[in-house]
Design goal:
Number of strands: 14
Helix content: 25-40%
Radius of gyration: 22 Å
Number of domains: 2
Catalytic activity: riboflavin + ATP = FMN + ADP + H(+); FMN + ATP + H(+) = FAD + diphosphate
CATH class of the largest domain: Alpha Beta
GO molecular function: ATP binding; FMN adenylyltransferase activity; riboflavin kinase activity
Largest sheet: 6 strands, parallel
Family: Belongs to the ribF family.
Keywords: ATP-binding, FAD, Flavoprotein, FMN, Kinase, Multifunctional enzyme, Nucleotide-binding, Nucleotidyltransferase, Transferase
Order of helices and strands: EEHEHHEHHEHEEEHHEHEEEEEH
Distance between the termini: 35 Å
Structural class: alpha/beta
Strand order of the largest sheet: 1-4-3-2-5-6
Shape: elongated
CATH topology of the largest domain: Rossmann fold
Function: Catalyzes the phosphorylation of riboflavin to FMN followed by the adenylation of FMN to FAD.
Length: 318
């Protein structure tokens, strides 16, 4: 998959560097099953015309640049987004540096000066796609303008689950409840967090449950504090684990959130390694214990419950 970074308005001068594609437009934070349906439609159209399928997306998130709440933390940081897009069969990803200047483009400038220079034969967008200054132009305006310069526009309808339109906002809401099983349904894959193992307090080893203190590599949207059944990718091998997300209230009074993973029956040095963690199920809320023995007893129970639930997940054995 080819990744092309775009930092300036093309103004029609750089078109020689691009080739005809069928292009999916959107930010695609989450790359949930609604996004996947849109990309699949673009891929199907590309196959019928014999051109590559491309995606046009933005970095940083437009809402972050515009100061709108909720998007300082992401569902799919750049590396994760690129990995999933490659799995979805995307040939080319155009990553546009989103700035206040770009946000100020009129609808006409976005289509005629920018989009047209990328040479898409067809663009595929969701029904609620908005663009242009203030996000005031919709799909009907996009279709009207694009067809003036020979670009077809195909609009994909909403994808729903349990009566709700699937969206990044809905997924964030479900994460805030710790409902990672439902999030997996909405994403079409487990929610993932990648991070580096750092030296911590080493308290888990003293308790008999050594843990990897994981520092996320990007500003992920984290689920609510609690204990989760997860699997962890270590050097191309998946390992079942129990993950605590929270503030460790038994030992601390501050509110700094940490991620600590206890890999079941794993031995080895993980310091400095990058781990990919997939959240499979919520086990319990984080709580403060009144003694170390009470905490150890609860960890034993957590590990037992994790091993029991592993059997409900295909492709994972213990």
């Amino acid at each position: 998959m080819e990744i092309i970074q775009i930092t300036d308005l093309l103004d029609g001068n750089g078109s020689a560097a691009f080739r005809p594609t069928v292009m999916a437009l959107g930010n695609f934070d989450g790359l949930h099953i609604g996004h996947q349906q849109l990309i699949a439609r673009a891929r199907a159209l590309a196959e019928t015309t014999g051109v590559p399928v491309s995606v046009l997306t933005f970095s940083p998130h437009p809402r972050q640049v515009l100061g709108k709440g909720g998007y300082t933390h992401l569902l799919t940081p750049s590396d994760e987004k690129m990995r999933v897009m490659q799995e979805l069969g995307v040939d080319i990803v155009y990553v546009v540096h989103f700035s206040l200047d770009f946000a100020a483009l009129s609808a006409e400038d976005f289509v005629f000066r920018f989009l047209g220079a990328l040479l898409p034969q067809t663009v595929v967008v969701g029904f609620d796609y908005a663009f242009g200054r203030g996000g005031k132009s919709d799909t009907s305006q996009l279709k009207l303008l694009a067809e003036q310069i020979g670009i077809d526009v195909e609009i994909v309808g909403a994808v729903s689950a349990y009566g709700d339109k699937i969206s990044s906002t809905l997924i964030r809401e479900k994460l805030s409840y710790g409902d990672v099983r439902l999030v997996q349904e909405l994403l079409g894959r487990p929610y993932s967090i990648s991070g580096t193992v750092m030296h911590g307090e080493k308290r888990g080893r003293l308790l008999g449950f050594p843990t990897a203190n994981v520092e996320p590599n990007d500003p992920y949207t984290l689920p609510k504090n609690g204990v989760y059944l997860v699997r962890v990718l270590v050097q191309q091998t998946w390992n079942a684990a129990v993950l605590n997300i929270g503030t460790k209230p038994t030992f601390h009074d501050d509110h700094r959130r940490t991620l600590e993973a206890h890999l079941l029956d794993f031995e080895g040095d993980l310091y400095g390694q990058t781990l990919r963690i997939q959240l499979l199920d919520f086990l319990r809320d984080e709580k403060k214990f009144f003694s170390v023995d009470e905490l150890i007893g609860q960890i034993h129970a957590d590990v037992l419950e994790a091993k029991t639930r592993l059997h409900t997940f295909s492709g994972i054995s213990y």
